[in-house]
Every structure is written in structure tokens, then in C-alpha cells.
From TrEMBL, chain B:
<comment type="similarity">
    <text>Belongs to the universal stress protein A family.</text>
</comment>
<dbReference type="InterPro" id="IPR006016">
    <property type="entry name" value="UspA"/>
</dbReference>
<feature type="domain" description="UspA">
    <location>
        <begin position="3"/>
        <end position="144"/>
    </location>
</feature>
<protein>
    <submittedName>
        <fullName>Universal stress protein</fullName>
    </submittedName>
</protein>
<dbReference type="InterPro" id="IPR014729">
    <property type="entry name" value="Rossmann-like_a/b/a_fold"/>
</dbReference>
<dbReference type="Pfam" id="PF00582">
    <property type="entry name" value="Usp"/>
</dbReference>
<dbReference type="InterPro" id="IPR006015">
    <property type="entry name" value="Universal_stress_UspA"/>
</dbReference>
Amino acid sequence: MKYLSKFGLAGVMLPLLTTAAAAQEAMGLDEKINQKFAELTGPFVSFIFAPIPGTSFPWIVMWLVVAASVFTIYFALVQARFFGHAISLVKGDYSDPNDAGEVSHFQALATALSGTVGLGNIAGVAVAVGIGGPGATFWMILAGLLGMASKFTECTLGVKYRNEYEDGTVSGGPMYYMSKGFKELGLPGGGFLAILFSIFCILGALGGGNMFQANQAHQQIAGITGDYPGWITGLVFAIIVFLVIVGGLKSIARVTEKVVPFMGVLYVLTALVILIMNADMIGWAFGQIFAGAFTGLGVAGGMVGALIQGFKRAAFSNEAGVGSAAIAHSAVRTKEPITEGFVSLLEPFIDTVVICTMTALVIIITQQLIIDPETGNYMLNEAGTAIATVDGNSGVSLTSAAFGSAFSFFPYILAVAVILFAFSTMISWSYYGLKAWTYLFGEGHAKELAFKVIFCIFVVIGAAANLGPVIDFSDAAIFAMAVVNVFALYFLMKKVREELASYSARLKSGEIRKFEH
Amino acid sequence: MTVKIVIGLDGTETGGRAIEFAKDLAARLDACELLCAYVIEWSPFTFQTPEENATRHKRREEEIETATSRVVDPAVSALKEAGFTASGIVRHGDVAETLNTIAVNNGGAQIIVGRASEHGFTKRIFGSSTQNLVMHADVPVTVIG
């Protein structure tokens, strides 16, 4: 607020208004911008999403799945062994009552989840099942379960190597464990990795965590109200985001942070009701998932197609290995960094294993995917690229149609949920981007304000223009974060194992025990 | 044997009346220790933004400092000046639950609190909290009107 009064609200808002006008003007220049931007960023995007030679499997997805498998083996199935303990931690069983008032494990988990639960769970799953068939769900769940180990690793390190400042605030995340962790191990290059990660994190925050969200939110609103210029949505969103992250208007953030989990719960409950209404088909649906996972049931690309789509969706949805959650979790003031790792492993479970699976099951059970009655296999669309669906729906409209087939009003609730998810994802990523920004340029109000204003400007651009290549680039930047992050995790995972061994021993001996509340 | 009495403060007049009652009661006892407790309403199950989480520790310290300097310390000083043995404590948590825990952990014989305040905010916090405390406390509770 200090800087608000210094510069004046109008002064800081001016770039937003200017950008709105510019964005409108820019719409006519879309083609030129797209072309130029695609030329510049194309090689980078192509590199990140390049398929493994001889397959159509993007290497970045394999990179994340292999990492998750390595961490699962290295920590001897930590996600299964400590699942119950993670729930106890979230419930507060191990929280010292004298520490009441600090960020709780539940709050850290909820905050991190609000950054990942979103369009991926609604639209992304529909894309995966639409292309890869029900079998994609099996691989998605498997990747989600493996991803729990990646989250555990990165979030433990996030807390262990965070910076705590004299004023009581904290900054943490991959850039801190890269620089401090590598230094502790006597390894070179930690600082370079941290800088690289921070650059990708800023780009990812402005793109996937901002422009993509604004763009999709506009699509949703325009879908209900009819088409209108995107910059209007962008400007409204930018003003709200501005009021929250610059103006410090906590009430909006608080309302969102309360409504978003409510929407998430409502979404899952509605899915459960639909499943109960079709209880006789649940066995059949799981039969389709298992059969499709290993045979493909006639989908494009067969079993491999189902596997690719499932793995891809899980990796894109829960962000395990990307490093973003490590930033969110590092705010918890705990004496045991590993407890935050345990709590974080619940995220891919909730995000992918529960929410994504619910979406997939509803789409399968409401029979949105058309089956050839003669062969029992799924019918492909005319282009042969995806499964033919009722009314030709795909993406978010497929999910919407599936839920709408049971409750006609639900598409409207879904549209509101998508908009709110987009907003909460923006708020979360504004923070992730800010932490990377301050790592590069240093802490300070003026520097932070600069990033926040840039972030708001990108909200307008994201909603106003259909800059496909920019969004491709932004997505690529988020996954480039994973390249750097996972590379660092391989070197630092032994530190996590030391923590795990020490904690396990003390838990077993009774030194770490539950508190009576 | 020293009897310990926990006084639940809320920074308002009703809290003041609770202190007056406690003083009266303590004066009648041979050995009595008064513990002034202020609980800052807080739940570990609320939803916060990442930025709020990052500054939470700082804000917690500020909240404790404010409650201590504005409510607890003046009450403790006044009690000491009046010749009583008194100390103070500030905690975060559910008001009723935390006051009870403070009493149990400190060997409190009873808890004295003010009745629901007439003011909106305090009423919201202490109104239902007083009811909850009366219903669930492990030690006797005196509510001052």
C-alpha cells in the first residue's frame, strides 16, 4: 500500500488501461505477432515437446515419469508408506499447540492445490480420454501415484533450503535448494541452475499461469454470454488481480480461496452423485479403463496412444517435478522440513487420482464416447484423430456435456468453477513468478511492484489476443522448469533420504509423537 | 495450596468485569494466582493465498505483540499493583478450546470470562465462544454479566 500512495492508483493502473487499448489494436496485428513470435520461440517449443525418436511420446513427459519412478524406488514407495502419516499431519495431530497461528500443513496443502487444480482437471482429462480412450485413465492414475514421490522430494527440499528473513517472512523454492543445496554438497553449477529455473518460472508464470488462464476464462464467459472482445475480460481480471496482489485487497483473495475449494468439493460430489446414479455401470467403466489401458479398444494409437495421453495429462495437471509446489510449501514454519514433503505427496493424489479420475469416469459412464455396437470398440471421428463423441464435443465442452447429461444446470456451475479456478491459479502463479523474480533481482517493494504490474498487463494480453505461439511457449517454459528442477533433484535426493531416515527413526522410537489437542 | 484462576480477556469492558470478579474472589482466598489469557481466534483449516502464507509468521508475531501490549500486560500490571500474583498468556486458536487447554495445562481451578459483548466483532468471537466454553470446559466456568 505504501507504493500505491506514492505513485497513486491511477498512475499504476495507467499501463493496464493503455494495454487494454493496445490489445484491442493488437488484435488486428495478431497474425504478424503470431508469425514473428512463432519464428523466435518455435525451436524452443519444438525442443521441449519433441517426441522421442520413433514414437509420438514427448520426451518431457517421459522425463517426468522416469523421475517420478526413480524417486518412488529411491524412497521405497514413500507415497504408500507415509500416506496415512501425511493425513495425520494435515489433521494437525503432530502440530505443537504452542505453534498455533503459524501456517498449518492444511493451509499449505490447500494453497498449493489451488495452484494446480483447474483447467487440467476439467478440460485436460476430457482431451486425454477423448483421444486416448478410457484406458488413458489407468495410465493417468499410475502417473499420478508415481508423481507423489516427485512432489515429496521437491517440497521437502523447498522447506529445507528456504530463506528466512529478519522480518519473519520466508522465500523458498527450487532456486534456493539449487543454489544452497549444491553449495552444501560442494557441487558446481547450482547458481546457474537457479537462474535458469527462475527465468523459466517467470515465463511460465506469465504464460501458463496467467495468459492461458485468462484466455480460457474468457472463452468460458464468451461461451455463455456470446462473443465479445477478450480485452474486456482481461481488463476486469487484471483489475481484480491488481487489487489483490498490488493493492493488498485480501478480501477478494480470501473469498476466492474459500470458494475454490468449495467448487472443487462440489465438482467431486456431483461426479460421485452421477456415479451413484449409474452404479450398475461402474464395474463396466473400470472394465473399459483396464481393457483400454492394455488394448486401446480401437482408439487412435492403440495402447501406446492411451498411455501417452494418460501420462501426459497427469504430468500436465499435477505439476509434480515442475517445482512450483516447492515454492508454495516453503512458507510453512516447521521444525521438520520432511513433514511438508509428506503433506505435499497428497497433492497429486487429490489432483490426479481423485479429481481427474472422477472427470474421466463421468465421461465414460455417461457414454459420451461412441462405441461401435458391432465390434465393441470405440469409433473414431472423421479425421481419425480422436474418439467420436455425442454432439462432437471435445475438451471442456465434453466434460460439460457429460455432467450436463445428468444435471442440466451443471454446465453453468462448471463455467463459474472454470473461471474461479483460473483466477486462483493466476493468484498462485503470480506468487511463484514473484519469488523467481525476487531471486533474480532481489527483494524490495519497487522490484516486486514492477513484476506485479507486468503480471497484470499479461492478464489483459492473454485474454485479448489469441496468441497461440505465446501460449505454446509459456507451456514449454513451465515444462522447462521441470527439466532444470528434476536435474537438480537427482543430485539433492540423497539429502531428502537423510531426512527421511532420521525422521522415520524418531517416529518409530516415539521421539516424534502426536500432541494432545 | 495456591489456587489458580484463569481470566479470559477480550479487551473490552466485559473482560474488565471478569477481572474485577476474579480480584474479589482472589481476595477471599489465602493463596491465589491469576492468569490473564487472551486467545486470538485462529483456525488451521482456513484457506490462504501463497503471499499470506509467506508473511504469516510475521503477522502472528505482530498479533501476539499487539494483544500482549494492549490487553494482557496492562491487566497483569494492574493486578500486580493491587497486590495480586498475576501472569499473562496469549495464544492462537479456537477461543473456547484454547481457554480450556490453558486452564487444564496450567492447573487452573476455574475460568472466569465475560458474557458475550454487545459489540459486533467481540460478540462474534466471544459470544458463541462463551457458550462453547460453558458446555465443554473441564473446569468450572464463571460467566460475568
